[in-house]
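Page header: ASSEMBLY MODEL / two components / 817 residues total.
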Amino acid sequence: MNMNYLLCGVGGQGTVLAAKVLAAAAIARGEDVKTTETIGMAQRGGSVTSYVRTGFNIHSPIIPLGTADVIIGFEPGEAVRNLSYLKEGGTVIVSSKSVMPVTAALTDSTYNGDEMVDYLRKNIKNVIVVDTEKLCGICGSDKVMNVILLGAAISSGAVEISYEETKTALLSRLKPKLHEMNIKALELGMKG
Amino acid sequence: MTKQLVMGNEAIAFGAIRAGVRMVAGYPGTPSTEVLETVAKNNPGNIHVEWSINEKAAMEVGAGAAYAGKRTLVTMKQVGLNVASDPLMSLNYVGVKGGMVILVADDPGPISSQTEQDTRHYAKFAKMMVFDPSSPAEAYEMIQDAFEYSEKYGKPVFMRPTTRICHGYQTIELPEIPGGKPEDMPEKKSDGFVKDSEKWVIFPRLSYKNHILLEKMLVDIAEDFGDYRFNEVTGTGKKGIITGGVSYEYVKEVLGDRDDVKVFKVATANPFPEKPALEFLKGLDSVLAVEELDPVLEREITYVCGKHGIAVEVFGKLTGSMVNAGENSADKVAESIAEFLGEDNSVQMRSGIKKEVCGGGEAAELRETAKMPEIPSRPPVLCPGCPHRGAFYAVKLAMKGKKTRYCGDIGCYTLGNAMPLDMVDTCLCMGAGLTMAQGLYHAEPDARCFGFIGDSTFFASGMTGVVNAVYNQADITVVLLDNSTTAMTGHQPHPGTGKTMMGDVVNCVDPEMILRGMGVKTVVTADPLDMRNSVEIVKKVAEEKGVKAIIFKSPCIAVSKPSKPEIIDSAKCINCKKCIKELGCPAIVLREGKAYIEKSLCFGCSVCESVCPVGAISKSGGEAK
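Prediction written out in full:
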């Protein structure tokens, strides 16, 4: 089945690796994949969006509005920013930890993401909020947030990718010394 | 063969290696950079790969190799072609011996460029062939064709992918070693460079003769392109869409498998292939041109209609039927096509983009029913620990209360314009900062004029500006922001790094020696993370007469190791928020109304320590990030 995944967050959060893992699982099933992402200026603390389209006869590399099966939000505000891509009945998996933009700090903003999470909970049927700050703490690294979110996505049943496929794709992309921590992160993410 | 997920730029590089390229030269520029990097990473050992110091140098290095019969690839972004346009214009008059592909990546949007210029115009202007791939898979094939056409006609050719092709990934069937093994690509027999001043030395008489030949050749090539495999006409009906590049994919996304609209995909915008155009126009009463950047195809098809007296209405950017700036998307194209066909957007969308969801689906309805909270904007900023922050802040402190002009340049440090630093008054193009500072000085001699320039930009196009300042007696301060890499485009080596794309370690070219050699008497090197010392140096140097230079030397955080993160002692903190409001560091945030340093973001540069009026910020005992 053709699937559209949208991953969004802030530069440096590891959206690109997560997108690659989703793509690798589809390729392993013999499907075609198109992906694209914003790179360049966006790396420097700006918003980052990765689009992953899997299946057959895929044309546009960017997901058309209203057609994303799943949005994986690495930051609650960024998930809300990209909501217009979500299809009816689509699933949002979102980290509750906010990242305050510099411009917000300069203007004494009280932004902490809670308002975004509330909004998602109230208005989108299928929302999974993940306390990545807590789970990253258990794993001992902030860098595994992407893997935790992938785990949550798998257990939601909304993504066409299994635990085994994810694990294979993930471990082939990571140094052996990071394997243990990432498997732990994946499993914690699945438990929620 | 295996199915691999390949970036468009990688596909282009693999195609070039398979085509037997022997020389690849370029200058980094988003979105073109990964082409050259991929060739370097997959070099079978018989390709000379170099980051030249700028696009003009790359074009000329490439021309030399092509004169000697080598297949040559030159890479750059669209604004880089402006720098290389001098050799380009003459080169097409002279021609080449080995196939030469000039890869120029255009950037609709623009996503990371100064202009939305369209390289297809350069193809027309320079009278050159241009290949316009619609997907990474097509780009892989097309670059191999481009080398063939270049050799067939003895002329350099353009390959012009756009950002969504360059940075899009697609599954492509490729050999296990994507570039192929060296033995798969035996070099064509060539007698190398053959001395012939009637051919290789451009003179007015030769140019006149070659101009005549070139015009005739363009007619032949247009004819030849009529049968080119990626120029395609499909579908039936009275309405037609002419398109090319990634816009073709958007058109396909919108039309799905419906066959009642004619589609002409143009892979070679110049010279325009008239034969398939006439086949496309047959039986049509109207045409919509769907393309990014300028209405090139739109004008071509209009010309063909006029030339042949064909009564077909042409719609596009020129008629206001398509927007004339920014990149296309399936959604934008869907709207224009629906209007063109006089159909309801929802009926026409067969591929899942229904009207009711096109405007935003569930979320769009929500926007009306439940008010969406305000999402904070998130512009790109200098990274936590970026040495440019210290450099800008030191100059800002040193010049407080004085009349100043701060001329910036192209690179990460353009971001020094953002609040709260606000230290970039002008930014125009590569190298312009140093020279514009001179113009401002001559116009307003009472201002202290600074030109900020990065190390790679200095080598690319800053040096001539320094000589100009010394010669013409400008009173300016050159601030060289030396972070030992080309940071903006993803950390390419340059003459100051002592590394080449062939993997060699070579002597570093030292900017200080260059500056002194060019006649700059005062050249002081400072550590931008040592705020107190840096401020003193700027105060002293900026007061001197003539051209003087400060080199702020500290490596980019992406090529260095972090030190222990800083921590704010909440007992000492007086909540003045000066650390936030002076520096704009992404690692210092507000948490429950107080300044707080995000350990996971802090690089430990310690610039914030010097900003705190009560000494509440210091190194934590914790681990580096």
